Amino acid sequence: MYRFLLSRQWVILTLVAFLLIPTMIRLGIWQMHRYDERTARNQLVSTALSAEPVPVERLTSPGHTVTRNERYRSVTAKGHFDTDEEVVVRRRVNADETVGFHVLTPFVLDDGKVLLVNRGWIPADGPSQTAFPKIPAPAAGETTVTGRLMPDETTAASGIKNLKGLPDRQVMLINSEQEARRLGVPVLGGYIAQTAPEPKGDTPELVGRPGDEDAALNYAYAFQWWLFAAGVPVGWVILVRRELRDRREKEDEQASEETEPAPV
């Protein structure tokens, strides 16, 4: 009765079914790795955001690469904004997914070094985004700024192409090395997303806090894949039993037809 399992159809079905089991198990393991990564990132971000602000030069210096543990750390800097060298970062969106610019203003520290400050998002003046927008002025004179320390943006990390031939005072990426060459002065590695002082008007809109990644979703997906893996052999057995039942019913029908008396 089980000879049908050797047919081409059932051999293929069996091979596919039992190849799916390790595949689904591996997908579940991968989802658990993603859960661990996201949980660790959430903890890292939470720790960084809750830490007390420290002077920016404790964590970065010219040429420094901001590390994973330094990212989002709250830092302070004392100096003044240099709006003459201000640039805007193209194709950035706000919380409403509206495309505009980020305002990148050099902040000159008391010792002459420069810290790049992302002052927030402003809308574009028109759909072309080629004209330099009107930007509200920052605090004048000597001031203290606070912000979240961020690593330099790169094409590899962000996927944003660093286009050439852009309109004057417009850039695609926030990169301290690139700005150091443009300004001709030492620039601290990375940049800060300003959190204080808050703008007097509605713009620039300060860049929002990083949110938690949904690690629980990966946890659920992992068990979902493992349940699928467990369900494959169960489903295979059900199909075999159904096929066996159908074959027996067909044989019983044939036997019944053969034993019926011939009409007179």
From TrEMBL:
PANTHER family: SURFEIT LOCUS PROTEIN, SURFEIT LOCUS PROTEIN 1. GO terms for cellular component: plasma membrane. Keywords: Cell membrane, Membrane, Transmembrane, Transmembrane helix. It is found in: Cell membrane; Membrane. The chain crosses the membrane at residues 219-240. It is a multi-pass membrane protein. InterPro entries: Surf1/Shy1 (IPR002994), Surf1/Surf4 (IPR045214). It comes from Streptomyces resistomycificus. Belongs to the SURF1 family. The keyword Transmembrane applies. This is SURF1-like protein.
